[in-house]
Amino acid sequence: MAAYEKKQFRRADAAPLRDADVQAIIAARGAMPNAAKAMATKYKISMRRVYEIWNSGGDTPVCGAGHHAAHRDHRRRAPPAGEKTKTKKESRTERADYLLSQV
Q: Which of 4, 20, 76, 99 is 20 to 30 A distant from 54 in Cα terms?
């Protein structure tokens, strides 16, 4: 995995992850309770990084150009043109009316 040979940002006390380390982190998933915490402590990386390795199969660098790309889809988007959104009060009123109709 050549991605780990690039310049990366890590914690000051973090050791560089070798391919064998990444494979060990991937193999630990589901093999023990609290595997993420155990791997983060063992390799001195954050639990977030452990989850990134698990979700990507170890192909992503610690911090790269596309670091925030995964979060773009979670942003709140504007409704399509001409479509009105409900206010909180309208949503609550609608929910209360629904719950009262079920009684």
A: 76
Q: Which of 14, 35, 16, 27 is nearest to 3 (CA)?
A: 16
96 within some domain: no
Q: Which residues of 79-95 are buried (b: 16+ CB within 10 A; e: fewer)?
A: eeeeeeeeeeeeeeeee
Which of 80, 18, 24, 16 has the alpha carbon at shortest distance from 44?
Answer: 16
Q: What is the pLDDT of residues 6-61, one digit of tens each?
A: 555 666 666 678 888 889 999 999 898 999 999 999 988 889 889 989 988 766 55
Q: What's the domain range around 46?
A: 13-64
Residue 81 falls inside a structural domain? no
Predicted model pTM:
0.47
Residue 73 located in a structural domain: no
